[in-house]
Amino acid sequence: MKFFKFTLAIALLPLLAACAGGPNIEATKSMANKGSAFNGALQQEYIALAMAEAEEWDMEDAHYFNNKALAAANGDDVQPQEIKERDITGDARWDLEAARQALRASLLAGSKDYAPKESARAQAMFDCWIQEQEENDNPKDVAACMNGFNEALAKVEGMRPAMEAKAPMKKMMDLPAPYTVYFDFDSFDLSATGAAVIKEAAKAAMEAEAGGLVVTGHTDKAGSDDYNKGLSRARAAAVGNALMAEGIAHDSVKRMDSGEAAPEVMTKDGTKEARNRRVTITFTR
Question: Is the pTM of this model over 0.85?
Fold first, then answer.
């Protein structure tokens, strides 16, 4: 992504739209947005990305970003791209996964409403980052997208409304016992059973008026320490975001990653063990 070419891309927009195989970005740009302020800002951010890719003759990604701009214009729920949709290898996978989960946590916490432009910028820059990381042929482009994402997300976090203080309860219920969500091997995708456990844990937390939830990711001992640390972080983020989707406040969820260091079942190094591939949910006042 050559960001210094954005201005040139705007000037060349009519020509690019007419190029064989290129998306009709001009038509997308002229569309009235049917959604929220966030959708409107997202439409413009993705148009800019589509234009920049078309100017570089990367028509596949130009179409991809233009289609996301179209969806935003139609008022659809446009999500940041999933890591598995791109060919990402090495430690970059976990850096991107952590960034995506942080972004989704912010969106779930309502940043689309209180910081629509900044949230749209963060989402577009994340998609830019993952696209450039897949190409991985220009470190400056990767850094530009990554820095753009981090700057936008920092602005979003700085605009978060202050939480209202809760009135103290005369008598508190006992805190629920910990809940455990299990995962398939080398996966941080939630199963139907896992989603049901999270729903039950969220309900229990709200009924007991728990002050916070600690979500700790774990892995078995198959794989390297560093890999398992990143995988446990992704599992904790997945469960934390699912809890927020069930109504738990963003600031009430604390994520921790234990990697393979605290197994439920002791095994030899390199051993696969289903009971160790888990996230624990504990409750605090």
Answer: no
